Amino acid sequence: MPVRNEERHLAEAVRHVLGQDYPGEFELVLAVGPSADRTEQIARDLAAAQPRLTVVANPAGKIPAALNAAARAARHAVIARMDGHALMPPGYLAAAVGTLTETGAADVGGVMAAVGVTTFQQAVAWAMTSRAGVGSAAFHTGGGAGLVDSVYLGVYHREAIEQAGGWDEGMLRAEDWDLNYRIRARGGQIWFAPDLRVTYRPRPSIRTLAAQYFHYGRWRRVIVREHPETASFRYLAPPVAAALVTVGLITGLAGLAALAASAPPAARWLTAGLAIPVIYLAGVSMVAAALARGVPAKVRVRIPLVLAAMHMAWGAGFLTSPRGLHRKSDTRVGQPDAATESAASAGAE
Q: Which residues of the chain are modeled with pLDDT < 70?
């Protein structure tokens, strides 16, 4: 479990993992990054009280580096990834390992079951589990069991991770997709099991949600750039929408400026560009009205804003993603990085 700035959720996430009724031995390894809150102290306190809990340092503070550090410290042949924002349900480990054995897959995973606490989070949870918000990804919207390109979190055969080279520490988002791509390239299979549902806590504000989806978009562009065969309507729709809305706003505002300056009538036609963002907002509002009928009104009224934030931020990230964003790392799961070697030479564990 990679954690950073997870003071609010960490103890609950750990409790859900250690409370598993699993018929074999298991441990939880927390890879703790530099935090601005009490995350590290909470992790240490939990480890002091729980013999099955180990804490390792993640000085880089990045998720793929944390995953590699935790995997190196782990002792068992199956590696189950978990997030500090996620709550592992009862029976998850037993069911996942059973599926891993039955299917012969290298990695299995299930549904990212977003559940909000606040009204805003509930609106985000609806959008994250709706095709209107995230497209047709099975781990968001569900579906039948079967082979897929990637899954949420993931329960892996350790050897599959090691043979694929571990998580690429230069891939700061979409790191699981990238690892699963390399596993599939070696002949391994990724299996989606819809009965594996992990509760996920959405971001609590429009600012943090937009930042999350902006970075998703930036790194999805990296995936499409490096693996163009993966491009699909689901990935291209948000940047197209963001580009059209931006052009419409700029054109419309230019038309309003022309009206204010008493420009020639031809220039005033630029105000027609405002029709594009208006049509878009009307569209997401109609989607919320049609698809979220069973949702409480105070949640439903926030859904158009949430959808617009997700679409526009994801699209903006995709469109502005720089070519040099991804720098591949040579770090491997079975090979300590420089920070780990330095700590070891100083007698740290």
A: 134-142, 330-349
